[in-house]
Structures are given as structure tokens and as C-alpha cells.
Amino acid sequence: MRVGLTSDIHLDPNDRNGKMVEYDGKRISQRILDKLNVLKECSKIFGDNNVAGVVDLGDLCNMLNPPEWLRNLYIKKFITYLSVKKIERLFLIAGNHGTDSVNTAFSSLNGMVYNQIKIEFINKKVLVTDGTFKGMYLSPYCPPIGDGIYYNFLEDGVFPHPYDVNDRSLLLIPSDFEDKILFSHMSIAGAKSFFGIDLDGENPVLLNKFKKCILGHFHKPQTIGNITYIGSPVFNTWDETEESEKYFPFKINREYKTVIFDIDTLELEYFL
Predict the structure, then answer these.
(1) Is the CB of residue 196 less than 8 Å from the CB of residue 162?
(2) Which one, of 67, 61, 79, lies nearest residue 8 by Cα?
(3) Other CB atoms closer than 10 Å to residue 182's CB: what's the count?
(4) What per-residue confidence (pLDDT) applies to 176?
(5) What are the residues whose beta carbons fall under 8 Å from the beta carbon of 59, sequence distance 6 or more?
(6) How far is CA 229 from CA 21, 224, 249, 264, in A?
(7) Shortest CA distance to 233 belongs to which of 215, 251, 217?
(8) Per-residue DSSP letter, 191
(9) Could you tell me which CATH class the domain 2-271 is placed in?
């Protein structure tokens, strides 16, 4: 079974970079529409390659309480196209932008069935135990703590609760996670920036017992052991480019390729 992956789109309703345009009676940044058009192209690839579901790995939006019009634009420009392609499930993982609230415009998508697509907003840990998506473990943003990140991956709750870093017995993850696949949003040591700079993160050894980890948060596509960051399809900040302009234009991340993940074979397929 295959799932399409998106991550770190960072839709920003307050974006004032680039050209401002009129859309449905609102004056918004063209960059918002450009980003949604990228997602539209992803949806076509997902549909043409028979994915059963789509996982957004976090930071879909760049603010805590996005307006309803942005949510509706996302439905119109992305979810509508997924429904045409007969995709069954859409999982929206809460990233570090906007995880402080469970009552946002995007979290209100949780439980919605749009045509045949069931939408789930992941603001608490979810282990899928049956059906087509069995074996998927989805977790919202995991914030770092001190020199280590030790989570109770089985504990219920809105957000992951880090263990006391001094309690080394809690480093052990239950053995039944060895056949699970983690989808989440977190920082892992060993990752690089676009310019080869080492990024801060937690010890990847923590995740060794997972069969595979598919993560959002870092925008450069890369793989560290059993961990893969699919990256962001667009540049989101000046730090990610070497250019200096008055306005930050829409720029495609040329390292990025649309990604489909096969849950059965653990293979990642990349499409231009």
C-alpha cells in the first residue's frame, strides 16, 4: 500500500512577500496560490500512481490560528483534487507551527469526509491497528528537551510528553514498535541545512526500533539511517537561499521531488 507525502508548506495568510493579487474578494500574496498549485501538482502524481492515502508531515500553515478562508482555499486547491483521484485518507500532522491549539481552522477538518476522503488532524498520537493503513504510527510535533528526547510513544494525550532525561530506563521503546512506521515532525541530529550546516537535533538512536521514520520539520530532503526528511517543495525563508531581494519571491526547492512511500516494501519513490 502506498501513501503520498507532503511537508512544510508554511501557508501564511499574512504573507506580504511577492505580488499581491485579488482572489475571491481578498487581497492575498501570490505565493499562497503558488504553493497551493505545487500541492495540486503533487495530487496529480499521487492519483496517477494509485496511492491510497496522503500524509502531510506538519507545518502546513505558518500560524497558530489560520483564518477560515485559508482552510477553504486548501480544500479547493488540494483536497478537491485528491477526491477526484479516489484517495481514501488524508492525515494532517500538527507541526511546531500551530500546535498550541486544537481549535484552529485546520484542526476543524478532523473527522470531515470530503467526497470519499476521510480527513484526520493528528494532534495526538495515533497507532493504526487495522485496515489498509495498519502499522502506521502518527505523532504530532515532538519538541526537544535538553540533550535527549525520550518520549512515551504509547501514552495517550494531545501532545507527546518527554520523559525525565535522567531516567535512562525510559530509553527503551517497546519491542512491538519494531514493525511500525513512524510519521512525525521533529528534529534529529545529523541533519544538514541547505548550505551543509549541521542542524541541532536529538539522537537518532531513539528511533532505531521503528522500521522506518518519515519526518517533517527540516526543509532539505535527506536520509539519516532509517529516518527520511522529505523536505519542503518551496523555499520558505531567506536563510534557505543565497539571494537578497526586497521581496521574497516564490522559489521552488530544486532538491525536492514529490514522494510516494510504499508501506509494504519501505521504498520511497521520487517524481519530478
Answers:
(1) no
(2) 61
(3) 22
(4) 64
(5) 7, 8, 9, 10, 95, 96, 97, 98, 185, 216, 217
(6) 33, 8, 24, 19
(7) 251
(8) -
(9) alpha beta
Q: How far apart are CA 13 and CA 158, in angstroms?
A: 26
> Whole-angstrom Cα distance, residue 36 to residue 233?
11
Which residues partner with 169 through β-bridges? none
Q: Any idea how long the chain is?
A: 272
Q: Where are the domains positioned within the chain?
A: 2-271
What's the mean pLDDT in 114-119? 91
Q: Above pLDDT 90, what percent of the chain?
A: 28
- CB-based contact 124:151 (threshold 8 Å): no
What value does the mean pLDDT of the chain take? 78
By CB atoms closer than 10 A (0-12, 13-18, 19+), residue 157 is exposed
> Residues 6 or more apart from 158 whose CB is under 8 A from it?
102, 123, 124
Grid cell, residue 192, equals 544538514
Distance CA(220)–CA(234), nearest Å, equals 10
Distance CA 127, CA 107 (A): 19
Of 104 and 211, which is predicted with more confidence? 211
Residue with cell 510535533: 141
Backbone angles phi, psi at 121, to 5 degrees: -95, 115
Closest CA to 205 of 232, 168, 231: 168
End-to-end CA separation in angstroms for the chain = 21
